[in-house]
Design a protein that fits this description.
3-stranded antiparallel beta sheet, 9-stranded antiparallel beta sheet, single chain, elongated
Length: 286
């Protein structure tokens, strides 16, 4: 018997395609996909192999979240052009979903690393780390910017870059090293947002790659100047020059209830200080 003419029961056909037979019954009821014939003796629905590609097309479109009315319209007007248009739309949607999931994965990885850090850090330690370049979205603030306003600014920027919620990005604050060295420990000038997979382009802040001094502060902000003084003293002792900005980021917001337990990670670009010239070393010979 030719396989195209062999009839299958609704259960056999459903099993062949990995679906429930109730799905086939529903598709028949709404006029989307009919059986090849109805058994005249018992009224059972019967299908053949020839119908498999059609059903698989419907199942593919359903997997792509194409609505039933859209599929019904397509089935009434099946053509290569119609299918190409439909798939192009869904490919675009799928690309957006993939980018979103990649961004979520990167953000989750960052939070995971923060939790690892929390479990291993020595809060008194100041260390040297190597970092890759990051492209950051920044917004300007000053010492008079209220906390509520800062939250509004961060929220607006995350929305502008297509992120649904604040937890989809990492964010923090920046203070110029020159302000720290002048004793202006509250001279914050920018908030930063690290948006996953953001490419470098005009208008973004490039956090430079290289060597960074890393430290942590636990507690309220009024004690932050003392920690920065520790950092400046450490840099002098180790012969390090600090440059650019200090980047601050909270790393335990999700697991604390009291502001006294808040831990800030501080990272500042640094490099060995240039040795001062010895007397006569840079003098030209006569």
């Amino acid at each position: 018997m030719n396989k195209n003419s062999k009839l299958l029961t609704i259960g056999e056909f459903a099993s062949l395609h990995g679906i429930n037979k109730k799905t086939l019954m529903w598709y028949d009821e709404i006029g989307l996909f009919h059986p090849a014939c109805i058994n005249p003796e018992n009224g059972y629905r019967c299908y053949n192999y020839y119908q498999s590609p059609i059903l698989e097309t419907i199942l593919l479109l359903r997997e792509l979240d194409v609505s039933i009315p859209e599929i019904q319209d397509f089935m009434k007007n099946r053509s290569a052009e119609h299918m190409k248009t439909l798939l192009a739309e869904k490919l675009s949607d799928l690309d957006l979903q993939i980018r979103h999931l990649q961004a979520v994965r990167k953000t989750l990885h960052n939070h995971y690393q923060d939790m690892e850090t929390l479990l291993t850090i020595d809060l008194a330690e100041i260390s040297i780390v190597e970092k890759e370049e990051r492209c950051l979205v920044t917004v300007d603030i000053d010492r008079d910017t209220a906390f509520e306003k800062e939250v509004e600014l961060i929220t607006a920027e995350t929305a502008r870059y297509g992120l649904g919620r604040l937890h989809d990005a990492s964010y923090g604050s920046m203070i110029p090293v020159s302000s720290l060295q002048s004793g202006n420990f509250d001279d914050y000038t920018k908030l930063f947002i690290e948006i996953p997979f953001l490419k470098r382009k005009k208008g973004l802040h490039a956090q430079p790659p290289g060597t960074y001094l890393r430290a942590f502060h636990k507690g309220t902000w009024d004690q932050m100047p003392l920690r920065y003084q520790d950092i400046l003293d450490y840099a002098r002792r180790e012969g390090l020059t600090l440059s650019g900005f200090s980047y601050e980021k909270g790393i335990n917001e999700t697991v604390i209830d009291r502001i006294e337990d808040y831990i800030v990670q501080i990272e500042i670009p640094c490099h060995p200080a240039k040795p001062s010239a010895r007397p006569g070393e840079n003098q030209k010979p006569r």
